[in-house]
Amino acid sequence: MELKFLGGCQEVGKSSIFVNTGKEKFVMDHGIEVQEGHSPIQPPMDLSGVFITHAHLDHSGFVPGLYSRGYRGRTFATPATFDISHMLLEDSLKVQKKRGMTQGFTSQDIRTMGRNEKIMAFNDPQEMGSSTVELLSAGHIPGASMVKIESRAGSLLYTGDVKFISTDFMFGADSDVGHVQTLISESTYSYKNHPDRNELKKKMLEIIEDTCHNGGITILPAFAVGRTQEILMMLKDIQFPIYVDGMGIRATHRMLSHPKSFRNPGMLREAIERAHCIRKQPERKEAVSGPAVIITTAGMLQGGPVSFYISQLAKRKDCSMVLTGYQVEGTAGRTLMDTGIYDNGEMTANPEFPIHFLDFSAHTDRDHLIDFYKKVNPEKLVLVHGDRTPEFAEELRGMGFDAIAPKNGDSLKT
Ligand SMILES: [Zn+2]
Ligand SMILES: [Zn+2]
């Protein structure tokens, strides 16, 4: 087998891997780097198929770009992944246009992708030419999968983004993947373990109770896909009004139309029905009028309704903000965490309310990654999707794994 790493190496963003079995040519993920809109290296167009592991734009964001460049073959993913991808792809076009970025595809290309989609279920191996391809549950967000390819030229498993432990929202990944020669693994959190999720939840509820009892408002910036839903479920028993604003509302309804793609659809339905979903500006005014919790996008504060709430509440010491996810270097959220100043390119503010960071990660952590590698025991271990992959590869070589951390553009023969 021959692999070429088209993107997502020694970085988190624009994930994409080209696989040539000698007979078939596949692409696994074709994402974008969200800040600047960079796309992966272009693969050849005579592909036997493209697989999207999950809807997040760093994995799905440039698949329509393949169709814009003339690809007319199939794209494979789970139903939830396709459905949520379409929402995120349309939104990314809008955001790119607003920011004056060059666009690698149009709405028409998203529709062309739609016409060439082929749904795959978990644990249902499909024969594609002389290869067999199977999707396994990755536990990351609804619909998220790992891709397993077996051919005469060898076997591989690509984790996409993966989380092994179960939460109220998602069942953990399927770690019984059998033997594979090559394991290509995300390694976002190769350098640390996550704090106990129940402790984080307790802390978040304490911050909210304290703020609301003092008449304040807690702003919870959250990613539309995954985090918004998990936070909604965590807050279902609090006594104060809950507002949801931004794309998280639509994302929640899309997920509810795929109830088998996550753990607790009944609980999520109850939670979103209990919350006030904001659709117009006057409702935003109402949300900031009394003690409340506001779950809103963007998760890294780059845009979306969160800037309105910051502008309204910046001077109020009785309010609070809880950042609930990883803040990528260079984003408005990261700058706010590091300097206390909010600047999204359109407005600046110096919030006087406290800002907390609780990392409810949807990725697995260091110990669980290493446990998984020991279990699979691959002949070759390839680390992608992380900022510290060379260091991690070196550590893993010390543990006896044949581990590498390729750069974008590198090839590998297995
Ligand atoms: Zn992801
Ligand atoms: Zn990712």
Brief summary:
The chain has 414 residues and is α/β, with parallel strands linked by helices. The protein has 13 helices and 22 strands. The structure holds zinc ion (2 copies).
Structure in words:
With 414 residues, this protein is α/β, with parallel strands linked by helices. It folds into 2 domains: 2-192 and 362-413, Metallo-beta-lactamase, Chain A (4-Layer Sandwich), CATH 3.60.15; 197-357, Rossmann fold. It has 13 helices and 22 strands. Strand 7 and strand 8 form a beta hairpin. The longest helix has 20 residues, at 79-98. 48% of the residues are buried. The mean pLDDT is 96. Residues 54, 56, 140, 161 line the site of one zinc ion (ZN).
β-strand number: 22
Biggest sheet character = 7 strands, mixed
Q: How much helix is in the residues?
A: 25-40%
Q: What's the CATH first level of the largest domain?
A: Alpha Beta
Q: How much strand?
A: 15-25%
Distance between the termini: 5 Å
- Rg (CA only): 21 Å
What secondary-structure arrangement, pairings included, does this model have?
Elements: E1 2-7, E2 16-20, E3 25-28, E4 49-51, H1 57-60, H2 63-68, E5 75-77, H3 79-98, H4 107-115, E6 117-119, E7 126-128, E8 131-137, E9 145-151, E10 154-158, E11 182-186, H5 197-213, E12 217-221, H6 227-234, E13 242-245, H7 248-256, H8 265-274, E14 276-278, H9 281-287, E15 292-296, H10 306-313, E16 320-323, H11 332-339, E17 342-343, E18 348-349, E19 355-357, H12 366-376, E20 380-384, H13 389-398, E21 403-404, E22 411-413
Helix pairs in contact: 3-7, 6-8, 7-8
Bound molecules: zinc ion (ZN) (2 copies).
